[in-house]
């Protein structure tokens, strides 16, 4: 399997990369870790005439926190997310999720930016970013704009990213210390996409939920932020009736395909189960 | 012939610096096997599942079938051909795979050993579970993994003995 021919570009700055995208329009594709794009190119399902390798742009690496916002630059790899002390302390759900993505070799190379920008509904990071209410910094010829992860995804592989833009960073509001979190993923084997998966972020006040956020992976054309389910949980004591009604609200917004991972009804049910498990673990971890 | 310009790719492979001019679409595995005649890294699934093409690049294990040679420009690479000790004797991992019967057909072995090499550099004392998760990107259809895990444990133990530590690399 050999990809089609292309001209290779290796810019050293974002501005240079954007200029190449502008001059070639949709004949150009940015390349980050390449573990989605290169397989597609080998199958000739993608055949960009110009490949813009972002690997030489030092400015696209790094994780930092400033004023209650954690910024992860787009070319930060899953391996670097797993190894980050800052994230382990402030946003441990990122490590938990990263460890469920693909396998070690792919995590050395696969990037957060590529994972969220590609628009593949099987990817795990998009739903997590919706759960965390992250926003994406999109850099184009007219500068930066920010789009919320909850507004970014339009359909499978269709996003708010324009052909001449590059997703350069992900910004995440730092959740309060002591928050509860969990990412639960049902998959057939290591490296598989989720049959269904759920991300949950919780803060507790006394015995009741001060805030809740739930998002689902791979049970629709796009990642799903479960707004109704999140609202139902907020203010509750996570009693069985409330949890059941929140799970039902989350299941109601799913629209999975029937495929090798199971029939649609099963995958919807598994989304509910993953949410329930994530909720239970998040509640255990939350400090009031 | 293509009208697309060939590009220079310079890498240091197993300690030796080499340069070739290749088409941009050349995958790293083809660069290694066809340009440099390093046929230890294998082409298995070609879809980044099986790990037979695993090589070490700048201290990371990567699947060379899912990377363009151009992306490795300037990198330090180690393949199975660079695994033996400088005096030609088997490394602790290679010895472990032989002693513990960590292979049957041997097709996955170059990728397994190269991956395990990086794993043990990062985590010299892995638990059994850490070994299993550490080689989760490498498929073996013969052994059932049991003896591969034992081979890596053998190597870890040997490398952790003080008198062999200087031979670890």
UniProtKB/TrEMBL annotation, chain B:
The keyword Iron applies. Residues 7-83 form the 2Fe-2S ferredoxin-type domain. The keyword Phosphoprotein does not apply. Keywords: 2Fe-2S, Iron, Iron-sulfur, Metal-binding, Oxidoreductase. CDD domains: fer2 (cd00207). PROSITE patterns: 2FE2S_FER_2. InterPro entries: 2Fe-2S-bd (IPR002888), 2Fe-2S-bd_dom_sf (IPR036884), 2Fe-2S_ferredoxin-like_sf (IPR036010), 2Fe-2S_ferredoxin-type (IPR001041), Beta-grasp_dom_sf (IPR012675), Diverse_Oxidoreductases (IPR051452). Gene3D superfamilies: 3.10.20.30, [2Fe-2S]-binding domain. PANTHER family: OXIDOREDUCTASE WITH IRON-SULFUR SUBUNIT. This is Carbon monoxide dehydrogenase small chain (CO dehydrogenase subunit S) (CO-DH S).
């Amino acid at each position: 399997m050999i990809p089609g021919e292309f001209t290779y570009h290796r810019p050293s700055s974002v501005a240079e990369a954007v200029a190449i995208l502008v001059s070639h329009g949709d004949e150009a594709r940015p390349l980050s870790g390449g573990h989605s794009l290169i397989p597609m190119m080998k199958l000739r399902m993608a055949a960009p005439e110009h490949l813009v390798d972002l690997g030489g742009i030092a400015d696209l690496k790094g994780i930092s926190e400033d004023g209650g916002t954690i910024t992860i630059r787009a070319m930060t790899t899953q391996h670097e997310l797993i190894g980050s002390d800052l994230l382990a302390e402030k946003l441990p759900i990122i490590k938990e999720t990263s460890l469920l993505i693909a396998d070690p070799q792919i995590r050395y190379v696969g990037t957060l930016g590529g994972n969220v920008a590609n628009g593949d509904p099987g990817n795990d990071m998009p739903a997590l970013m919706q759960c965390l209410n992250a926003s994406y910094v999109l850099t184009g010829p007219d500068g930066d704009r920010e789009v919320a992860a909850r507004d970014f995804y339009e359909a499978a592989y269709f996003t708010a990213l324009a052909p001449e833009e590059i997703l350069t960073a992900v910004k995440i509001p730092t959740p309060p210390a002591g928050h509860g979190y969990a990412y639960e993923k049902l998959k057939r084997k290591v490296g598989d996409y989720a049959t269904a998966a759920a991300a949950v972020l919780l803060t507790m006040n006394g015995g009741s939920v001060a805030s809740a956020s739930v998002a689902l992976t791979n049970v629709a054309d796009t990642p799903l932020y479960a707004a109704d389910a999140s609202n139902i949980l907020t203010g509750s004591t996570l009693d069985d009736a409330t949890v059941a009604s929140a799970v039902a609200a989350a299941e109601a917004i799913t629209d999975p395909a029937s495929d090798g991972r199971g029939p649609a009804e099963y995958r919807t049910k598994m989304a509910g189960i993953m949410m329930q498990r994530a909720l239970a673990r998040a509640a255990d971890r939350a400090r009031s | 012939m293509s009208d697309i310009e060939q590009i220079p790719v310079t890498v240091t492979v197993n300690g030796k610096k080499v340069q070739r001019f290749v088409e941009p679409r050349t995958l790293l595995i083809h660069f290694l096997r066809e340009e440099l005649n390093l046929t230890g890294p294998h082409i298995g699934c070609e879809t980044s599942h099986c790990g037979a093409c695993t090589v070490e690049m700048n201290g990371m294990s990567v699947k060379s079938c899912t990377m363009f040679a151009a992306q490795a420009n300037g990198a330090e690479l180690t393949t199975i051909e660079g695994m033996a000790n400088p005096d030609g004797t088997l490394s602790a991992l290679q010895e472990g795979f032989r002693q513990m019967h960590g292979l049957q057909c041997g097709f996955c072995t170059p990728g397994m050993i190269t991956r395990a090499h990086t794993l043990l550099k990062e985590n010299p004392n892995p638990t059994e579970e850490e070994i299993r998760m550490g080689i989760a990107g490498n498929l073996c259809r013969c052994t059932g993994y049991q003896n591969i895990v034992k081979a890596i444990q053998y190597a870890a133990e040997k490398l952790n003995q003080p008198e062999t530590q200087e031979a670890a690399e």
